[in-house]
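Order emerges. For instance:

***
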Amino acid sequence: MRRHLAAVFLLSIAACSPPTPTCPAIAAPAGLAKDVPAGQFSRAEVTACWAAQCTPRQVELLTATTPGPTTCTPTACAASAVPTGGRYGFVEIPGLPAAPVDVKVVFDGGDPQRTTVRPQASRASQCGEPGVQARLVVGPDGTVR
């Protein structure tokens, strides 16, 4: 009888305890994202500099898409991805700080464009420190901000 009471007592304590947060095992890598307007460029190189060190990286520019028309049946809905004509890319830069970073971008071997960004953590995490990230937006004239 005492064993049963002890088991019930332990189960009731466990039921009242706050749940232990679980880690979804997804990561937010440190790096720079780029959005490039339609028909502008096909390749890019980024150099990020901070604390007297510079990190050059090639950026793969992928075809940007937007959701197409939605079709639905009684059991499910679906949409296809429709190309926008623009491009986007992400380049991982380990150690990128949450502090001002000078960035140089060269598109298709052209003139360098320069800007300063301040990367930020994407969200609070109970799974350790998320990587900091910044987004570079390219204007129609090729300027980077």
Observations:
- The chain has one helix and nine strands.
